[in-house]
Amino acid sequence: MKHQTQIELTRAVFHHLANGTTDRAAEIYQNPVAHYTSAERLVREKTELFLGRPLMMALTCQLREPGAFITCDGAGVPVLLTRGEDGVVRAFLNVCRHRGARVAMGCGVNHNRFQCPYHGWTYDSAGYLVAVPDKHSFEGIDRSEHRLVSLPAVERNGLIWVQATPSGIDVDSMSIDIDRTLAGLGTELQSFNIDTFHHHTSRQLRQKMNWKLVVDTFLEPYHFGILHRHSIAPIFFNNLCLFQAFGPHLRVIYPRRSIEALRDRPETEWDLVHHSAMVYVLFPNTVFVVQADHFEVWRIFPVEDKVDETVIFLDFFVPEPATSQSAIDHWDRNLELVTGVVSDEDFPTGEGIQFGFLSGAQSHVTYGRNEPALAHFENTVTVSLEQ
Ligand code: FES
Ligand SMILES: [Fe+2]
Questions:
Q1: 116 alpha carbon, closest ligand
Q2: Which of 97, 98, 146, 149 to mutate to test the pocket of ligand 1 (most atoms within 8 A of CB)?
Q3: Per the CB 3.0–4.6 Å rule, which of 70, 189, 251, 335 could disulfide with 107?
Q4: What pLDDT score does 27 carry?
Q5: Under 8 Å CB-to-CB from 159, ≥6 apart: which residues?
Q6: Where does residue 26 rank: exposed (0-12), middle (13-18), buried (19+ CB within 10 A)?
Q7: Whose alpha carbon is nearest atom 1 of ligand 1?
Q8: pLDDT in tens, 223-269
Q9: How far is the CA of 177 from the centre of ligand 2 (A)?
Q10: Which of 97, 99, 122 to mutate to test the pocket of ligand 1 (most atoms within 8 A of CB)?
Q11: pLDDT average, residue stretch 32-51
């Protein structure tokens, strides 16, 4: 983040601390409970948001080596991401053109050879069909028409965006307008040098709550002093955040109490990144958390057609590869702190909320003016479905 921006934001934090305030939305926002429980709405969310927009699918370092690949089913279609020997990132539907099996599973380095595990049709990392066992039995088929189906993919600022599309769309005519997609957030993302980071470890979680409730978890500090009073409340201020929207995306900053130490330092030395957690929602479903010295990336997907089930891919990125045991232990402890708070405190609460939604107790939930990021995210989902 630009140093001048850090200075201005730190001044805003000190202003809020002096006045007992926080960034506030113009109005209270009421969100219908049905937005979290409606199966019909989830169908539209999946079509419009998960298939109809580019999704942040991976960081550059997860696909750094030529020949590397990643698979992901989260968006509702099987996606295969590759980096070719030419260094270019490409995305495909992970569907063999013989009879439809996945041609790759998990992630790894394949060096230009995706051999379908069913009958052995083989594709290169550009999706071309390069080998067919017993080719005489398939004489006459046009291999160029049996390539893996491409999806639009773009790599920018250390992030890889893919548009998984609904069936029936001519993907060859599609591309991602990345500047439009980033909606003004590109310069700030670039400042974090995301492409220089290294993948440390990953976790996968399943929760019995709507996917938006999982995103909501990260969007307000109003609960820190109550729900997290024994965990992170001593580290962060309660009910104090700085909020900014970037088109559909957003940034919400939670200052650490350690920021008080900056009061005695000249502004030229102010380093907000080290005295806060910066949460970005890369709309619709990625929560990108810039911590003082590492990144956590939460990619959040609905499970099939279930309004109350979510799969979460958490990836943890560090500035240098952890090679010594002490470095590995250090980052593992960091990860356990984060996942412990979220899994032991936030998500059980969220699952209770989802269960309570079905009771009919209320038609709406209410976001206070002190929860501006929550209102922006939920409103953006709603507006996106209306377009
Ligand atoms: S389904 Fe892939 S080779 Fe048969
Ligand atoms: Fe929380």
A1: 1
A2: 98
A3: 70
A4: 98
A5: 56, 58, 59, 60, 189, 194, 282
A6: exposed
A7: 99
A8: 999 999 999 999 999 999 999 999 999 999 999 999 999 999 999 99
A9: 34
A10: 99
A11: 97
Q: pLDDT tens-digit profile of 47-63?
A: 999 999 999 999 999 99
Q: What pLDDT was estimated at residue 375?
A: 98
Q: Would you state the pLDDT for residue 338?
A: 87
Global pTM value: 0.96
- What share of the chain has pLDDT > 90, as a percent? 95
User: Which atom of ligand 1 sits closest to the CA of residue 116?
Assistant: 2
- Closest by CA to 9, choosing from 210, 198, 303, 262, is 262
Closest CA relative to residue 252, chosen from 375, 336, 160:
375
Which residue puts its alpha carbon closest to atom 3 of ligand 1? 119
CA proximity to 291, closest of 272, 308, 304: 272
Query: What is the Å distance from ligand 2's center to 346 Cα?
Result: 5
Structural domains of the chain, with CATH:
3-49+188-386 (3.90.380.10), 57-175 (2.102.10.10)
Ligand 1 centroid distance, CA of 300 (Å): 30
